[in-house]
Amino acid sequence: MPTRRIFFTQLALDARIGILEHELRATQPLHIDAELDVDVSQPVHDQNIQTVLDYRLLRNTIVDECTRAHVNLLETLIERVAERLLEEFAEVRRVKIRISKPSAFSDCAAVGIELEHSR
Q1: Exposure string (b/e) for 47-70, b if CB count within 10 Å is 16 or more?
Q2: What are the tens digits of pLDDT across the range 13-38?
Q3: Pairing state of beta strands 28-39 and 3-15?
Q4: Looking at the predicted structure, is the pLDDT value of residue 1 above 90?
Q5: Integer Cα distance of 90 and 25 in angstroms
Q6: Which of 38, 49, 62, 116 can bridge 96 by disulfide, Cβ–Cβ 3.0-4.6 Å?
Q7: Cβ atoms within 10 A of the Cβ of 36, count?
Q8: What is the mean pLDDT of residues 30-57?
Q9: Residues 6+ apart with CB under 8 A from 24
Q10: Which domains does the chain possess?
Q11: 72 and 34 in contact (C-beta within 8 Å)?
Q12: What is the pTM of this model?
């Protein structure tokens, strides 16, 4: 079956994440890159968004999962995001997520985790 790739580049949000004392007191910025391979099961009809997976729904799911509660580790957060995308969107075949902390260190642009899951 053919697939279509939906991607997000540097989706920026503030999240409660981390185990350090200052991270427990305040939010910090996260950047999220995501690639989702989606089954193409029907022809696209330009006037009907129901013929494609609406990427607004994917974005809302990512933002919700990243901002719903404090999480100690990026590894935990990235697993939760990937699992939720696969659970809520049956047409998603593969998800590749990268979550980074751009403010973690002053001597690099960001540090983060990348994860890939497929069905």
Answers
A1: eeeeebbeeeebeebbeebbeeee
A2: 999 999 999 899 999 999 999 999 99
A3: antiparallel
A4: no
A5: 37
A6: 116
A7: 25
A8: 91
A9: 18, 70
A10: 3-118 (3.30.1130.10)
A11: no
A12: 0.93
